[in-house]
Structures are given as C-alpha cells and as structure tokens.
Fold this protein.
Amino acid sequence: MKHVSDVMIKMRVDIFAFWKKVIAVGFFHLLSANLFIQLAGFSGQIFLTRWLTVEEIGRLKVLQSFTAIFVLLATMGMNTAILQKCAEQATVELKNLYLLTGIKISLYCSVLVTIVVFILADIQFISNNPLINQAMKTYCLIVPSMVINGVLVVYWQALKKVKLLSKVQISSRLIVLIIGMISAFFFHFQGYIISLVLTNFVTVLLCLYIVRNDLKDFFRVKMEWIYMKGFLKLGMFACLTNLLGQLLSTINIIMVSYMTTAKSELGYYSVAQLIVSALMMIPQSFNGIMIPYISEKSKDIKSVESILKKYRKRMFLLMTAITLIVSCIIPIVLPFVFGEVYRASINYFYFLLAGLYFWSLYSPKGITMMSIGKVEGNFYTGIVAVIVNVVLNYIFIKEYGVLGAAIASSTTYFVTIFVNHFFYRMIIRKAVRSMKYE
C-alpha cells in the first residue's frame, strides 16, 4: 500500500510540474489564440447551423477544403522556412531579411494563385457542383490575406512573442467572428462568404501595421544568395510537405463531394470535423511551443531527443485525458449545441476523434524533423500517408458512403504512426552520422 501511495504522490507531483511548465512556455496563450482562429475560420458554426441549411454547411466545408490547399500552394513553404530559420540563433538583421523575403514571395504567389483559381472556377473546373464554383469566385479572394497572416504568425512564434501573437490573433479573429455571424444572419450564405473576405483583408492590414518597423526596408532589401539558398530550399521542401499534410486532412471531403450525392450527410460530417479541428488546436499549440526550443538545439541531437521525449510524454497524457473526456460528453453536448438534427454527426465524430488521437501520438516527431531542418522525413511520410489515404477513401466511400471517409481518415492516421517512426529514425541516424564528420 505504501508503494501505491508513493506512486500516486509522484504522479500528482509530475502532473503539477507538467502544468507549471505548460503555463510558463505560454501554451495557454497560444492555445487560446488558435481556438479563436478555428472559430473564426468557420465563423460561429453553432449559429451558422441555425441560419444556413445543412447543404450550405457542406458546401462551405468543400470551399474551405479547396482553399486550404490553395493557401498552402500560395505560401510556397515560406511560413515553415521563416519559423525554422528565425528560431535559430540568427542576427536581428538576418531574421528581418528572412521575413521580408518570405512576405515578398508569398504575396506574389498568392496573387497568382488567386487569379488562376478564379479563372478555373469561372469555367466550372473546380467542382462538378455549379454552386461551389460560383461561390469559389468570391471565396478565393481570401487567399492573399490568409497567406500573409500565416507568415506573420509564424514570425512572432519564432521570436517567442507568444503573448503578442495571442492578443493579435484573438482580437483580429474576434472581428471576423462577429461580422461573419451578423452577415450570415442578414445576408445568408453569400453574405457570409463576402464578410470573410473583407474582414480577413482588414485584419491582415492591422497585423502589417504592428510589424511596420520590420517592413520599412521592404522595397530596398536585397536577397543575399549565401543566406537565401538554404532558406528557399527549406521553403520549397516544406511547401510540398505541407501540401501533402493538407491533402491528408482534406482529400476525404473533396472525394466525398465528387463520389456521393448525399449533400446533407456531408453537412453532418462537416460539423463532426469542425469539432475535431477545434480539438486539434490543442496538440498543434503544444507542438508549436516545441519548435523554437528544438531549433535552438538543432546541432545537438541528444538534446533534441531529450526535449522530444519530454514533450511526447506530456502530449500523451494531455490527449489521452481529452479524448476520454470528450468521448463521454459529446453525445450530450453536440445535439444540445448544434440542434437535434445534427445528432447524425456523432457517428462520424468518433472515427475522426480516433484519427486525431493517432495523429497526436506521432506529430511531435514530425515537428522535430521540421525544427532541425530535416523536412524530407516529413515529406516521405506525407507521400506514403496520402497514397494510403486516397486508396482507403476510394474503397470505404464506395462501400460506406460518407462514413467511409471517416473510417479511412482514422485508419490512415493509425498507419502513419509507424510510417512516421520509420522515417524519423532514419533522419536521426543520418543526422548523428553527419555530425560525427563535422
């Protein structure tokens, strides 16, 4: 009995120390900001389910899935490159050079991507649903704002300005949330789309104003190839890797929209995915805290693995508790919050929640590879995962309809645990060997 008592006391001490560390590194500041971003992205889903039809909710999710891919293409991996390079022990001038270069490249690419998407939507090429194509001609205008905002967010994150980041993000996304809800109430689906475009444009202008001192050399700064070679290479690799990651999370929605005619079921699925996406902010925020600390130790693999081990343990405790709690309360909360008609979302939710849990188990290793500049490990993992996901989606959607997409998603994330581990060990062994010869 004494042994059991000692173990319980040690567990309480570990948990208390864990939460003290979590608070000290700004986890809750970043988490609160990310939760508001998620809310603003769907602009008060709870209220939208009252004012938009189930079919419109599903249509909106398809638009968001496509746009997430367009934003990644337009960013060209500059967000990841800035996050990794600015988190290193670089000079202030060099960090500023990385920021200005990243903004320039992302801005030019985002304008080009927006024009191309508008043309494709106009000729009915984006979707086999004319309503989606019509809405996309307006919704695609949000791409430049989202791209620049994403670059600025990671810049602050790399500099460990977590409190500033959370304040700016919460304030700006709260504006998007409120105006979006008002627009949906009075002007319905199309009004909501227009409000998202306009409010995101205004909020990114506010963000640019905050970093105006860092942008004063925007038109004068020249790219020095000695610094830019590694920066651009990292960005291109990260772009492909991030694209694979985004496809992994959105290809199911896109395939469902093409392979089934169950428009209302897609709406139920979208609500389930919204809740899981909001929950994903927790492990994503936790991962985001890791990046600067690992990047600082990127030349010391022993220290990197030590940091990773601590964060993986904390992630496991955190996500196990959250998964169990949410699993118990969701059958009560979901119908109460969204309405009885959305009770059909619960079946989808459990499969998607399992996928989130599996993802949280391996994602710290992916973040570690990115933080030490070895993004090729994530790239290889992404290729395998996307191939598995597409194959499983095709099989399960044909067999089980929209539910098949949820089954395919959770199964893919489970398989990816082992794929990710294989490439992580390969990258770490390679890094250790290379450092021995330096």
